[in-house]
Amino acid sequence: MTLDIITPDRKVFSGEASAVTFPGSEGQFQVLNDHAPMVSTLARGPIVVQSSSGQQTFTVDGGVVEILQNKVLVLAEAVVV
């Protein structure tokens, strides 16, 4: 699936991912390929991205994630790499 993590200032990450773990406002959740469409708010915490090149972690201060047809878009308030 493709993943884009965007802040008001810049695009933080754009690429392929096999799994992504999010800090949802109601609790942590993971998205895999072919996940059902959904929109969720994010709390402050880590986004963990699993890809063929390994694992990357981005800490967000909150935001929104949209999952639709193997495309994941994160609109984050701020990201600390």
TrEMBL record:
Subcellular locations according to the entry: Endomembrane system
GO cellular-component term (any): proton-transporting ATP synthase complex
Domain of life: Bacteria
A GO MF label: proton-transporting ATP synthase activity, rotational mechanism
Transmembrane stretches, start-end: none
Domain ATP synthase F1 complex delta/epsilon subunit N-terminal: 1-78
Membrane topology type: Peripheral membrane protein
InterPro entries, sorted: ATP_synth_F1_dsu/esu, ATP_synth_F1_dsu/esu_N, ATPsynth_dsu/esu_N
Key words of the record: ATP synthesis, CF(1), Ion transport, Membrane, Transport
Protein purpose: Produces ATP from ADP in the presence of a proton gradient across the membrane.
Family: Belongs to the ATPase epsilon chain family.
PANTHER family: ATP SYNTHASE DELTA/EPSILON CHAIN, ATP SYNTHASE EPSILON CHAIN, CHLOROPLASTIC
Quaternary structure and interacting proteins, as annotated: F-type ATPases have 2 components, CF(1) - the catalytic core - and CF(0) - the membrane proton channel. CF(1) has five subunits: alpha(3), beta(3), gamma(1), delta(1), epsilon(1). CF(0) has three main subunits: a, b and c.
Protein name in the entry: ATP synthase F1 subunit epsilon
Organism: Spirosoma terrae
